């Protein structure tokens, strides 16, 4: 997954306030930009699509993507934004923010265009996202800007971490917008997770989970899979294995006692289960004296 490779470089991070008329003429960026509408309204044209941006909206501009921005109305515009690369490279610090279309860019500058990896993300991301939780994104964005502007020791690494958190939240927002039925049932799904986490000392059946949650078995499995990437039974097995591993590593109890406490009929059944889930036998995790 491309997310494992990301090591972002923040080129510009600023909280921009505009009182008068304001226009960004059509341009194509070398890098990426996230622009958040905190106050005011804008009309944003990306390629041939026109969007109205209001408070709580965020725009994603990709490398080489034609776009222009115009402030509308008399209300002041506040638009915190960041320019970034997904990967730090040798020329990252040389690249400037572009305000020109590609026709006006010098031939030697064409190498500055960053690779566009948006389509490799685990969920589709649109150029315009109307946030369901704008306050959280707003705070995360302003935290990045604060770190960038104050430049405390090692701020470059702090903003990397903050940006990754922001990006994951945007991916989640996009995922929820595409899977609204999952978000609608999230409270019930989290209740199921808590139930499974607190019942690791025994086997739990799908029938039991369905009865407890009031959700039909087939719909429950589909919802849980979409929300957490695994079935409820797989999640419960993982939690049981984690609980057993903790007991193996941090207690002196014999494996037979641990197997019994975890609700297994025998040490052999426990060993088979543990090896299936963890890929190793229980004795592998027993600390050597």
Task: Tell me about this structure.
One of its GO terms (molecular function) is sequence-specific DNA binding. Pfam families: AraC_binding, HTH_18. InterPro entries: AraC-bd, Homeodomain-like_sf, HTH-like, HTH_AraC, HTH_AraC-typ_CS, RmlC-like_jellyroll. It comes from Paenibacillus rhizophilus. Keywords: DNA-binding, Transcription, Transcription regulation. There is one protein chain. By secondary structure, the protein is an alpha+beta fold. The chain has 2 domains: 2-178, Regulatory protein AraC (Jelly Rolls, Sandwich), CATH 2.60.120; 183-285, Arc Repressor Mutant, subunit A, CATH 1.10.10. Helices cover 40% and strands 19% of the residues. The strands form 2 sheets. It has a 5-stranded antiparallel sheet, covered by helices on one side. Strands 2-7-4-5 form a 4-stranded antiparallel sheet, with no helix packed on it. Strand 4 (41-46) and strand 5 (49-53) form a beta hairpin. Helix 1 runs antiparallel to helix 2 (155-178) and helix 8 (255-261) packs across helix 9. The protein is elongated, with a radius of gyration of 25 Å. The model has no long low-confidence stretch (mean pLDDT 95).
What are the key terms here?
289 residues; alpha+beta; Jelly Rolls; Arc Repressor Mutant, subunit A; 5-stranded antiparallel β-sheet; 4-stranded antiparallel β-sheet; 9 helices; 40% helix
């Amino acid at each position: 997954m491309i997310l494992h490779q990301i090591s972002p470089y923040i080129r510009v991070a600023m909280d921009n306030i505009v009182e008068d008329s304001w226009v960004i003429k059509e341009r194509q960026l070398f890098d990426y930009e996230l622009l958040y509408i905190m106050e005011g309204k804008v009309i944003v044209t990306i390629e041939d699509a026109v969007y109205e941006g209001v408070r709580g909206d965020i725009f994603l501009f990709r490398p080489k993507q034609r776009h222009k921005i115009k402030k509308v109305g008399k209300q002041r515009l506040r638009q915190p934004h960041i320019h970034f690369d997904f990967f730090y490279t040798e020329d990252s610090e040389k690249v400037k923010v572009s305000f020109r279309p590609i026709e006006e860019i010098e031939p030697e500058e064409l190498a500055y265009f960053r690779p566009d990896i948006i389509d490799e993300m685990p969920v589709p991301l649109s150029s315009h996202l109307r946030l369901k939780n704008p306050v959280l994104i707003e705070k995360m964005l302003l935290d990045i800007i604060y770190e960038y502007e104050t430049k405390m020791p090692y701020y470059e690494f702090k903003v990397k971490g903050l940006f990754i958190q922001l990006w994951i939240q945007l991916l989640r927002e996009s995922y929820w917008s595409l899977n609204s039925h999952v978000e609608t049932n999230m409270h019930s799904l989290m209740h199921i997770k808590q139930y499974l986490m607190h019942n690791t000392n025994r086997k739990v059946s799908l029938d039991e989970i369905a009865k407890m949650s009031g959700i039909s078995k087939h719909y429950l499995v589909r919802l849980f899979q979409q929300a957490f990437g695994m079935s409820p039974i797989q999640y419960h097995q993982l939690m049981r294995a984690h609980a057993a591993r903790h007991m193996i590593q941090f207690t002196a109890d014999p494996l037979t006692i641990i197997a019994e406490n975890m609700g297994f009929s025998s040490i052999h059944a426990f060993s088979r289960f543990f090896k299936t889930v963890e890929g190793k036998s229980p004795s592998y995790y027993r600390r050597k004296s």
